[in-house]
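Sequence in, structure out.
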Amino acid sequence: MRKGAGWQRAACAALVIAVLCFAFPRPARAIDEALLNKDLIAVFYEDCLDMRLAFEPIGGGVPVWVSIKDVRLDGAAPPRCSQPLQESSDEVSALIETASGRMLQARVIMNPDGVQGAMLLEITPGKKGPPIDWEFSFSVHEKDHFYGFGEKFNALDMRGRVTRILNKDKHAGDSDDPAFFDDRSYKAVPFFMSSRGYGVWLDDPAVSYFDMDSKGQGKWTLHVKSERLRLYFFAGPRLADILARYTHFSGRPPLWPAWVFAPWKSRDVHMDRTAFEEDIFRQRELDIPGSVIVIDSPWETCYNDFRFNEKQFKNPEQMLQLAHDNGYKVVLWITPMVNTVNIMDMIGIGAGQCRNFDPIEKNSGFVLDDSGHTALVDWWKGRGAMIDFTNPNAASYWTGKIKDLIAMGADGFKVDDGESQFAIKGVYHDGSPGYSMQNYYAVLYHKFTYQAIEESLKGDGVVFARAGAAGTQQYGIPWAGDNFADFSSLGLPSVVIAGQSAAMSGYSVWGHDIGGYITRPHRGLEGEYTGERQTLELFMRWTQFGALSPVMQMHTTSNKGAWDFGLDALSNYIKYAKLHTQLYPYLHALNLEASRTGMPMMRPLPLAYQNQAQAHEQRYEYLLGPDLLAAPVVTEGALARDVYFPAGEAWVDFYHEYGKEYEGGSVQTVPAPLDEMPLFARKGAVIPMLPSDVDTLVSADMIKGQGVTPMDGRLEIHTWPGERDSLFSGVNDLAISINNTEGGKDLCVSGWLSKASIIVHRTIDGDARTEYKDFVPGQNNNCVRIY
């Protein structure tokens, strides 16, 4: 390492860092001049503001270099070095001075929190003062693809776009900047990954902007106004490794209860108890499996007083118990507003102030405006104030009300709203600046709801969330919010993109509204929408996509059930609802993996096949876990579609042309009849499934109704044998392996099951065959010769 004049010129090296991952051939100069050498990352510099980052490339070879292009603080020229570096084995620090004379403490911390392959750049003012306008630009390579930034509906690859990190209702009728209409996101996260193998996270909830080379100038730029800067860099080279490092800091989902992974039935409005009971009994009569009924708004006597409206729902406790008896958990809609004026959209709702408003206000439980008065917000259910979760008393009030509803029989909560247009730049109890709460409000809202559920239900409840920011993924399952019931760029195609974008942003478990939410007249980005496009075809295609999503939920403003779209649609829904339920052991195993590593259940092809150029071109196909390739049909009238089959694998048709094999590395046109979505199993996969007669995934001891079949330990183990050994690991210590042995293949099982049928899918000389074998635990060392 050089000293002398070169060392003095590096006095600002905390701002001119470079990251060097050591698992690849490195230029000797980079090693010699590494400022810090710590496992996967080293700090490298040329001069005070001549910064380069080098990352290990996917597949080895020449390092991936990223250099700083420009730094601006408060719009002024780059800061100048004030004092020489202070260096230890784990960090480097320096004092720097801005053009206005403000002193800043800068630190580079290696392996923060013990995470190898992570580095934190932290710059903090020496004295408290106004927020600083930070702007950093870094170089872009012509082959860079950028993924992340939250749940984006307009693009999966954000290269060439400017994105705003501000969670916002896509259809909010406010005076938003037109430049960001198509960029609106319910879940906005200042994190992204480059396809070349590095990730960046701005650890700050303030509104920020990322320009990902929109003008073709060969640079991406971060712009944020905040009191300090905390910028993480994550090494790869695999995108999955970057996600694991990012979610170590921002959080991972819990292992959700089993019943989450059976179909959910919701309506925009249950007009009365009769409608609620129809959802229970009609589904059971039609042999539609399901474990969740959602009661959306309205259900209260006031928005939000947490009191059931008994003019709408007679004897609500008995009603919730009826759902439980028939194998359903119940999820209730809530928002964090308490009204002074209500929209009277149901008999039994009063026009005036909620009875709990005054007690909350007297205990300083609401967000205040700049004058110190309770801040009132106009929203779609009237006018009210927002709970201030930074006030411990208000948070305690909230969790207490959630627990009261759980005691009545609620099993989870659909936490609606909470985005920035509601979380105004007000005054918060703990002194948090309003500009930082617009995104962060959702984190607290979800956190205290989840906390109440955990304390009451001990892992047997759920939060279903619309708004999101970095960190909300650890408190709830996000759903995609309000989307058009059509095939437009604001309908089904955009939701397929959004699920993949969310997956690349740390949201490992995710769902959406089957059928499309917006079916009534509504002015959207494409003009006046008439609500007449929720066709049988749309419903069938959205059902198929929903079944191959982590959470399968039907919810639409038309209030229709699957039985309202005709016999073909009903048959399609039953088929795919059963498939989703049967996939429970596989889905829950993916949730378990997500809780441990942050690996999403839905896996965009760039995540799984990062080094395949064609994988980065795909927007409407993805993997569900490692073994199922799903290709939703998002074009109206289409009866075929092109599918890219990733190289290095062979893929077997799951449905239409059962057993037909496709070699990887090619794009082929495949049939897509209206009642089937192209779906393929990876050759070599082993996927445990439930029998098709399972109606619900709630525990058997909850069920009191007749003719409702729960899980009982039976499994169907499906396998498509390949050349390699296969392994499946799931919940309850379930483990399945297929091993090449002398003379054939053996399938071995351990863990949770009482009896299994082994179903072997093989193609011999072009002839698809299905072979069945019984498996009884305890016999033959828990192994069966499959061929």
